[in-house]
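Person: I keep going back and forth on a fold encoding question. Show me how you would write down a chain together with its backbone fold. Please set it down just below, with no commentary around it:
Helper:
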Amino acid sequence: MNEAALLAEARQVLQDAGIGDPLREARLLWRASFPKRYEDYDDAMAGGRIATFRDLVARRAAREPMSHLTGRRDFYEHQFEVNANVLDPRPDTESLVIAALEQPFERVLDMGTGSGCILLSLLAARPQATGVGSDLADEALVVAARNTASLELDHRTSLIVSDWYGDVEGPFDLIVSNPPYIAADEMAGLSPELSYEPRMALTDEGDGLSCYRTIAAGAPEHLNAGGWLMVEIGPTQAEAVMAMFRAAGLLNVEIRQDLDARDRVILGQKPL
């Protein structure tokens, strides 16, 4: 079989599995299997790359996320390593980065940093800033460390194990977080791809709001005067999270929407 035939075969497998745009996904998997152009088909067969391609197609048909198969995910202005130990960065989360970059900051904290995509995007855009990324999972911090090294931000980034503010030393000009906000009773209705991501990054095993309660309550103690707290939310959580921000004494509480015009980010400022 030549390349066209193999792509057609993969397209059919993916289409039968209900994958949207199966030809595009087949081509992505082809590029992941064949990182360079081979002079002839025999060279392409060398090293079992055809078998590798078919294995990736089968895994995608089983709804394993594309980013886990390619090992990479584009986010904001950079590409990040991802795997099953971290949440797959999504375009919606870029709204949090965009909102944060509207404000001046020199020291930033990203809680639940995962792959580090939020923190590292912010630091790459602000060469004078330093940041701390915290996470409860050691495995996630290993991924974040590799992304930090890849972007050459080691000298401005600290990665620590912490249960929210537990082992964090402030204060900061900016605190950001994309916490687990899916309610436990909503998990069963999610797309199959999410079953491959760390559950603790998706749900608080409760009402989806418990992490915001902790983040909002601790923010004033860890922010400089005039500093900002910004969090990603689920599209139906804006009013509840805004109320938490106001109860914590934050001012200028606002909602920012994502590219699909859904409520996505809540921000608030510590009084001067």
